[in-house]
Each structure stands twice: as structure tokens, then as C-alpha cells.
Write a structure and sequence with these properties.
The chain folds into two domains: about 140 residues, Quinone Oxidoreductase, Chain A, domain 1 (Alpha-Beta Complex); about 130 residues, Rossmann fold. Helices cover about 25% and strands about 25% of the residues. The strands form three sheets. Strands 3, 4, 5, 6, 7, 14 and 15 form a seven-stranded mixed β-sheet that branches. The protein has a six-stranded parallel β-sheet with strand order 10-9-8-11-12-13, with helices on both faces. Strands 1-2 form a two-stranded antiparallel sheet. Helix 3 crosses helix 4. The protein is globular and about 60 Å long.
């Protein structure tokens, strides 16, 4: 089969080449991939000099089951599915039943391929915050993949959504998605928020933390700011009187046994019905992988990039 693999001598550190077909385990379905979406994390990981040459990467993919799992746990052959894993940028992938969700027959597989990492992350982090109806929730990096889903899901849960995007041109779009307020910097938010989903890290994380009310929780899921320095603890203590606030981290694969099938199915159905907007701003054949990856690495992509697999 053809696949995108790590190649540090190539543009965007990726190359399209032939690799062996995957051999599914008894609990895995073999899926013919028809579309994939890119995330900043996997693209930047490929560019890391430590990434092993020849590794097939890619988290998000959608396609059709060509061989059901031998143990009977997966959907039948011919079923359209969206999948999450670590080897998605290939014509075939072997996927455990818990990591795939059935997709509506009329769904655009390119659109639903944006669901796995971005949609699942937003959904699970917001669930961790508990009851959101009537509460103020901040989303930093709101115009990115996770951020867009988080704004929409939080608004649908009844939250008053405060969206933070460093690009002021995204303000109207974010309000259309459900944001009640849009700012370019969390330091500009005057009224405290109940919780924060932070995609940015660095100084944005500190300012978002200090915008929280007492007993609030910030969940960090990314570091799009590229900030590597460790900020001093006193930087987190500017908001006097707001005690027992906490910072948590989240990683989608932190629970290896997690069953994502129901959530993937629900998110895919919402996208297919037009009730969730994935925000695809770049789409093309997978032969243009280098262009898509570089656009993402350069910070010029606001939304999601999708590659259609030939």
C-alpha cells in the first residue's frame, strides 16, 4: 500500500511511498482510508529530528471497512467509519473496534475525518468540567481544530463561551459558532470564568488561569504558542482571593482501554447533519501533503486541513 512516512530529507519531513499492508489483530478491522485530517501535533512530531525514519504516522482517518474484525467486535465489511489511531496516513489501517465509529451513509468522509482528535478532545475535556449550563467557559486557541469544536459544544451545553483567538479576523466566525465574547488575549477578560480549555500554553495559559473564578479548573491540551520556558509559580497567583483553582493536563490516549466508538459515531453524525462545523480551510489530494503540512506548521491554517486519499 501507499503511505505517508517520516522522511527528514523531504519537504515537511514526509514522503509518499510503498509500505507493507497492515496485518489486523483478531480485534481489529481493516479499513480502506478515503480521507485524513491533519493535526499540528503529528505534523510537528514528524519534523522532530528524533522521529524515526520510515514511520507511518497520522491520527485521524475515515473510510470503509474492507475486512471485519475476526472476533466479531467491529462493524461489517462495507460499513463507512471514522477512526482514531497512530497510522492513519495510509491507504489501509488496522483499527480496534473501540477506536472506530460508524458514519452516516451520506456523510462527507473528508468532513468527518476531522472528528477524532479535535472533536474527541473537546468533548472529553468539557465533560470533565461538569455542568456547564449558565457558566462561563473560556477556550483559548479557539480558531484551531480543537478550539472550534470546543466553542460549539460548550455553547450547545448552555455555557457562556469566551473565545480567545490571536487572529482578530476570526471574531465574527467564532460568534457564529456560539461564542458570546471574542478576545485576542485572555488578559482582556474582566469577568471571571468557571473553566478554561487551553490550546496555547505559555503566557496565554497564565493569563487564562488568572481569569478563573475560585474553584475553577483549567485543562491544558496543547502548546500552539511554542513556549518552552517554565513560568515561575508566582505568575499564576495574580488573581488574589480566588483560591483552590487548579490546572490539569489532558491526553486523548491517556486511557489506553478507552472505548471511543459511541462518541465518534455521535460526533460524525453531528458533522454530517451540519450541526457541528469542522471548519475545513484547506483540502486537496494527499499528493499535496507537503503543502498542507507546511501551512499548518507555519501557523497559516485556521481550522482543519483534509487530504483525500487516492
Amino acid at each position: 500500500m501507499r503511505a505517508l512516512v517520516v522522511d527528514h530529507s523531504a519537504p515537511a519531513h514526509l514522503t509518499l511511498t510503498d509500505v507493507p499492508d497492515p496485518i489486523p489483530a483478531p480485534g481489529e478491522a481493516l479499513v480502506r482510508v478515503e480521507a485524513v485530517s491533519l493535526n499540528y501535533g503529528e505534523v510537528s512530531d514528524a519534523a522532530d529530528p528524533k522521529a524515526p525514519e520510515g514511520t507511518v504516522i497520522g491520527w485521524d482517518a475515515a473510510g470503509t471497512v474492507v475486512r471485519a474484525a475476526a472476533d466479531g467486535t467491529s462493524p461489517a465489511a462495507g460499513t463507512r467509519v471514522v477512526t482514531v489511531g497512530v497510522t492513519g496516513w495510509a491507504q489501509l489501517r488496522a483499527v480496534p473496534a473501540a477506536r472506530l465509529g460508524v458514519v452516516p451513509d451520506d456523510a462527507d468522509l473528508g468532513a468527518v475525518s476531522t472528528v477524532p482528535v479535535a472533536g474527541l478532545t473537546a468533548l472529553h475535556v468539557l465533560r470533565r468540567m461538569g455542568q456547564l449550563m449558565g457558566r462561563r467557559v473560556m477556550v483559548t486557541g479557539a480558531s484551531g481544530g480543537v478550539g472550534r469544536y470546543a466553542v460549539q459544544l460548550a455553547a450547545r451545553a448552555g455555557a457562556e463561551v469566551v473565545a480567545i483567538s490571536r487572529n482578530p479576523s476570526r471574531a465574527d466566525e467564532l460568534r457564529t459558532l456560539g461564542a458570546h465574547q471574542v478576545h485576542t488575549d485572555p488578559a482582556a477578560v474582566e469577568q471571571p470564568v468557571f473553566g478554561v480549555l487551553d490550546n496555547v500554553g505559555g503566557r496565554h495559559l497564565v493569563d487564562a488561569f488568572n481569569a478563573m473564578e475560585a474553584h475553577g479548573t483549567l485543562v491544558n491540551v496543547g502548546r500552539s504558542s511554542g513556549a518552552d520556558s517554565v513560568l515561575p509559580p508566582e505568575a499564576l497567583l495574580a488573581a488574589g482571593g480566588r483560591h483552590d483553582r487548579s490546572i490539569r493536563t489532558f491526553h486523548l490516549y491517556g486511557e489506553p482501554a478507552a472505548d471511543f466508538s459511541a462518541d465518534l459515531r455521535w460526533l460524525a453524525a453531528e458533522v454530517a447533519a451540519g450541526r457541528l462545523d469542522p471548519g475545513i480551510t484547506w483540502r486537496g489530494p494527499w499528493t499535496r501533503y507537503a503543502e498542507a503540512a507546511q501551512t499548518l506548521l507555519d501557523g497559516r491554517l485556521h481550522g482543519k486541513a483534509v487530504l483525500d486519499i487516492a
